Amino acid sequence: MRIIRDYEYLDPSDRGASVAIGNFDGVHIGHRTVIELAREAATASNVPLGVLTFEPHPRQYFAPDAPPFRLMGPEARAHRLEKLGVRRLYELNFNAALSALSPRDFVQNVVRDGLGLTHVVVGADFCFGKGRAGNAADFQAFGKEMGFGVTIAELLEGEQGQVSSTAIRAALSQGRPGDAAAMLGHWHRIEGPVVGGEQRGRELGYPTTNMSIEGLHPPKFGVYAVLLDVLSGPHKGSYQGAASLGIRPMFNGEIPNLETFIFDFSGDLYGADLSVALVEYLRPEETFDSLEAFIAQMDADCDRARKILAQT
């Protein structure tokens, strides 16, 4: 997959794709429906399948001090899209110039003249251009006028109602990773490098990998049964474990992070890239009267996590 960040200066081979447009936060099953429609058009026209998205997320751009809301960072999103067979990721820099384009100027300057797209798929609730003034019907009309196809994808309904990144965030905030996974089409994953910790878990007999969740929507704090993939380094592979997500109240922590104990593993993972999937919420964060009580609870958490993951 090629990642293109400039719509004005690009290789001729990167023009002419059939694309799905959106923010694709989480790459949930509704997003995948839009991508599949773009794939059908790409196959029919024998052009690359692409996704057109923006970085930073427009919501981040307009409200940089708002609480974190993203389900995944740009690297995790690119990784997921590549797995779906996307060959061109147009990850355009969302800045003052782009945000000031009128709906017509966006379509003419970016979609037609810049990227030369042959077909575009957008969701029925898609809005674009300065002030979100354009809608999906406007895009379709511009496409007809300017010579490229536009398909409007209907919104997807799941068992929990309309599938959306907002609904997924709500499920995660309430400690319902299974419901989030049903809407995502995959486990919700936190991805990133292993960072240095205080090595307190090693002293307690539970060495953990530490990962930052900075910039991401925080799922409900507590202990989870998890699946994890080590994406780089000599220990690359898939594992099971139990993870604590939160501020570690037992040790007066302040900055939320994800600490994962990997079952039946021995090795150094500092600097390695991990992808940790939240499978089931076990319990909230707690403080304990003694380290002995804390260790006993961790023993129980790991036993329960092993049983859950054995059935996954």
Specify the number of helices: 10
Shape, please?
elongated
DSSP strand count: 16
Numbering strands along the chain, what is their spatial order in the largest sheet? Answer: 1-4-3-2-5-8
The helix-strand sequence is EEHEHHEHHEEEHEEEHHEHEEEEEH
What is the averaged pLDDT score?
93
Question: Which stretches of 5+ consecutive residues score pLDDT under 50?
Answer: none
Radius of gyration based on Cα positions: 22 Å
- Percent strand equals 25-35%
Structure description:
The two termini are 31 Å apart. It contains ten helices and 16 strands. Helix 1 (29-45) links the parallel strand 2 and strand 3 (49-55). It has helices spanning 29-45, 58-62, 74-83, 96-99, 103-114, 136-146, 165-173, 177-184, 200-203, 291-310, and strands at 2-4, 18-21, 49-55, 88-93, 119-123, 127-128, 134-135, 149-153, 157-158, 161-162, 188-193, 209-212, 222-230, 237-246, 257-262, 273-283. The mean pLDDT is 93. With 312 residues, it is an alpha/beta fold.
Looking at this protein, list some descriptive labels.
alpha/beta, six-stranded antiparallel β-sheet, 312 residues
Furnish the topology, listing elements before pairings.
Elements: E1 2-4, E2 18-21, H1 29-45, E3 49-55, H2 58-62, H3 74-83, E4 88-93, H4 96-99, H5 103-114, E5 119-123, E6 127-128, E7 134-135, H6 136-146, E8 149-153, E9 157-158, E10 161-162, H7 165-173, H8 177-184, E11 188-193, H9 200-203, E12 209-212, E13 222-230, E14 237-246, E15 257-262, E16 273-283, H10 291-310
Helix pairs in contact: 5-6, 7-8
